[in-house]
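Can't attach files on this board, so I'm pasting raw text. These are the components:
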Amino acid sequence: MTEEEVTLAVKDIIQTVAPDEDVSNLDPEKRLREQIDLDSMDFLDIVMELRKLYGVQVPEEDYKELATLAGCVRYLHPKLAAKSLHCAASA
Amino acid sequence: MPELARVVITGVGLTAPNGNSLAEFRASLLAGRSGVQPYEIRHVGPTLAGVCHFDALRHQSKKEVRRGTRAGSIAVYCANEAVADAGLELARYDPQRVGVYPGITEHGNVETENEIAEVARYQFDLSYWSHHHNPRTVANNPAGEVTLNLGLKGPAYCLGGACAAGNLGLIHGAQLLRLGEIDLALCGGVSESIRTFGIFASFAAEGALARHAEPSKASRPFDRQRNGIVVAEGGCLYALERLEDAQRRGARIYAELLGHCVNSDGTDFVLPDAAGQNACIRGALASARLEPAAIDLVSTHATSTPSGDAIEARVVREVFGDGPRTFINNTKSFIGHAMGAAGALELAGNLPSLADGVVHPTINLDELDPACAMRNLVANEPRNVGRVDTILNMSFGMLGINSAVVVGRPRL
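---
Top answer:
Structure tokens for the assembled complex are below.
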């Protein structure tokens, strides 16, 4: 996956977890929880979807890396580089 | 004993396999419209079920639906519809004094089965087990989802009573209103049981799951060809309040709760017991201070099983056999067995009789089983009986739990 595809993959997972939200105009550098309604259970859902869709295990000490969209991409790109994109929610 | 406050039903919110409001449900019951359809669920394969088609997004966000349970969605839909139907402005109530009491047959099987199926895809690696499992499966889940959705802060929990549960919510709500602990109850019964394969498989294992080439004819209480239960989902929650409160706000009153009884057979895990059912019905009549002949309509529990229907019919003959004005019907013939919601839905479909004097029939009665013969059984076509002042609604469940409720046209 390219960085653009990783961005798409993350936005797609967020859309699945927060289906009432508009994720098309997320500011990549702003905290996700300041832009859309996401709580700690949703955050665990995002981690679970990464595990299920891409086999990526995010240890608890790394959760802080996923606070922004840009942070997600920076953290996940190396782990997803060899994977192909699955989109469920068509973000 | 002090005189207890009178309690009345002022709102009905429901979803049934053949209607998503009392008006739709009643129209289906008078038109002979079944809600049973072909259905398929994992491990069981093609079978039959009563399936609800309400729009969950009418009262929930997509996230609420995703995070919650089917039983929760049913309860939230019914609660909102009951509030609207009763013309209630919830903001005028102290939120700590609104109670929510759905009766349930069981809860959590659906989510547990789903989660096991999911981790099976990952060789039972439990890091794939959802953090949502516990909040989804706790026994208060459907009631709790209603409080989250409506911002209520009063006592809210479910009453587990197998297939007798549909009356339990109503009874419990009335009791707490009479104790003065709450000012409004949203209570009745809900069931999502068609989403668990275990219910179907267990009924099949005991030879009690209905089979029929024509789905709408599969649930046929009292008929000679009946061969088992059609499992259904559904829900019905009532807005219940003290008569004086309802009158003060000028509410429309569907019915007054006149009496009730809950008892146990104490005899068997699954087999019904005529003596226990008889005692339950007589207990409800005694609490309503009515003789059997004063009941105009008996809403039976019969689930279309060979032995259960015959036992219940015997009890009805024993208690009501001499009443020339007591009419008998059954709702499961239309929708199947909605489990924890059954009693609440079955009472709801009959409530309009208090206003219009028409008794909906039991359908699919092509050849009456002589063991199920009952005087004034209303078969296949609705019957205008002129006037209905009182209804007795019965529900029985496994482990021998029986419940009966008597409601009547309010005497104001």
